[in-house]
Specification:
- By secondary structure, the chain is α/β, with parallel strands linked by helices.
- Helices cover about 25% and strands about 25% of the residues.
- The longest helix has 17 residues.
Amino acid sequence: MPGFAGADTYAYPGADALAWLRANSNLAWCGYYLAPAPSHQETSWMGRRAAMAAAGWGLAPTYLGQQLTGPGRHEVTGAQGAVDGREAAALMAGEGFGPGAYVYLDLEDGPPFRAPRTDYVAAWVGAVTAAGYGPGVYCSHAFAEDVHRACPAARVWAYKVATTAAHPFPGTNFPDLAPAGCGYTGAYMWQLGQSCEIGLTVAPRRLLVDLSSAVAPDPSAP
């Protein structure tokens, strides 16, 4: 059974671009970056939840947390996971996401899934849950099962892509494959395209997005 196509991009692309995509593509939902977060300081998505929901968009609230390597902050500990989980919940509340809505912790680093990463994720999930929200984790398909085993209440958004290089994506019929196709049958979402350049007839004319498919048209919904 197919899923529901979605896209995420680092900065808010503009109301015109989103309206065009809503009218001319099969996209059902968008990533929604909560900020400021440890590894995402750009705040252009903030304050737009109500308008996007009114326009019919499902949302995947995303919290870019502490990373083991690469850009961003790197305080990967259990204590910091609890701090960050409370911050993610506060940002959700501030944006008007209701009780039980899901928020996704973004882990950009790859396998293995081991301490201190395990401690950080478990503490973040616990803090989000204690605040009344649903936890989700975005991670590599290579350790998606490990994440789910450690945090069974968390929805898993697994990434498995053919290339990380920017490349054109033709048309506006975006992939909506079943998330289990990522290689982990328990995945709730699957990022199956990264750095996909799509064309629009409104500004911005070209938009760089990551493409995913989800089990439901609104990944934030309880």
